[in-house]
Amino acid sequence: MTKENLILLADAYKYSHHKLYIPGTEYIYSYFESRGGKFEETVFYGLQYFLMEYLQGAVITKEKLDEAEATLLEVFGRNDVFDRSRFEYIIEKHGGRLPVRIKAVPEGTVTGVRNVLMSIENTDPACYWLTNFLETLLMQVWYPCTVATLSREIKKTIKKYYSETASEAAFAGIDFVLNDFGFRGASSVESAGIGGSAHLINFSGSDTLIGSTFAKRYYQAPVAPGLSIPATEHSIVTLLGEEGEVDIFRHILNTFPTGTVACVSDSYNIFRACKEYWGTELKEQILSREGTLVIRPDSGDAIQTLLKVFEILMETFGYTLNEKGYKVLPPQVRVIQGDGISYSSIPPIFEALKQAGISAENLVLGMGGALLQRVNRDTQEFALKCSFAQVNGKTINVQKNPLELDANGNTRVSFKKSKSGKQKLVLDNGTYKSLPENEAPELKDQLVTVFENGEIKTTYTFNQIRKNAII
């Protein structure tokens, strides 16, 4: 499988770089950072997966080299770009193991943007080209970092509205307020696995089962960190037609007489379903359950629909006022909104409930494509840049500093200006800062060697990562 052939996991243009680096180049050092973007903080997560899946052990072999050579001759249409001997050297000298050192901040660490999160450098001067050859693959860490960051930022919003409107007892369930519905909307099983596990750093609710699989397989999660409940879809609820909807509802309650169960209720008329079916015909059965029915609207304007749904449910089931003066449905009834949920739509929803005197604890959310798919590398402006080199024994601090024009034609300093020299990440009075390696020797470097010469040197458990990322 090409996926497993590391020799082919680079942008095509990189195969010419062994010739394009100035003669005498011996060492290349590059670092990875979030240069800014949507959020002021970034969660570092996912590197361990890439190290385990792609980089550890003897990843360069003759068989893979043969496959890569045939493909690359086709790609370039010439035989003076790909140099087989560069990889044969790694096989002969290093047993197929990569002579590079990777340092990184502990996974789950939350830093401000524009900080070094990872560095990579070759350990064999003959393999100076290898550092940035690995950029293509290692840059993909942007994805789990971004999903983990997005999920955590949403948790901040939820905590804000819980602090303002929810009872103290309700805080115990906050890890289940945002549920991952994104498996089917992800671009691949791998994306769903690493992105789904990234969400689970912050929350425990998920239908993306592969996220739990990844957390267990690559991060030693002792049990599946993503939990779910029995729930319907429209194919179940519409099976007997509109006239039979209430019979389906009754069957669902009879099938799961205890525990939490969710039911999509907008197949025909969400308001009739809430008032006449759930709130009248099935009311006593619901209130006598040892568990919670979660009613799911799935269409229409989220705010207007939710306000009307809560109005009906509170009329039919009643409500109490919590210690902050906000309305709370009986514990046997809750609502989940899974349609149109995104980072931008969540605050207005909770604000509308607050203005209507409704506690945030009445509502949970399901988020699909906007969680696992509506992100890209520029969401947090991730980049990997060279900042240090050694050529013919001389050390050089390397920097990119573009001259830019703004929309008015005026010059400005580019946000793409890179760091200069080998870097370290330090904690200075509780704040992470990136500094040149030789500055502030009294401050410990927070970057840890995680990979060296084909071996993973440091690993993190999922529980450790969750603790590192806690708000």
Automatic annotation (TrEMBL):
Involved pathway(s): Cofactor biosynthesis; NAD(+) biosynthesis; nicotinamide D-ribonucleotide from 5-phospho-alpha-D-ribose 1-diphosphate and nicotinamide: step 1/1
GO molecular function: nicotinamide phosphoribosyltransferase activity
Gene Ontology terms: biological process: NAD+ biosynthetic process
The entry's keywords: Glycosyltransferase, Pyridine nucleotide biosynthesis, Transferase
Listed name of the protein: Nicotinamide phosphoribosyltransferase
Family according to the record: Belongs to the NAPRTase family.
Reactions catalysed according to its record: beta-nicotinamide D-ribonucleotide + diphosphate = 5-phospho-alpha-D-ribose 1-diphosphate + nicotinamide + H(+)
Source superkingdom: Bacteria
Pfam families: NAMPT_N, NAPRTase
Boundaries of every Nicotinamide phosphoribosyltransferase N-terminal domain copy: 5-102
Known EC number: 2.4.2.12
Residues annotated as binding diphosphate: R184, H234, R296
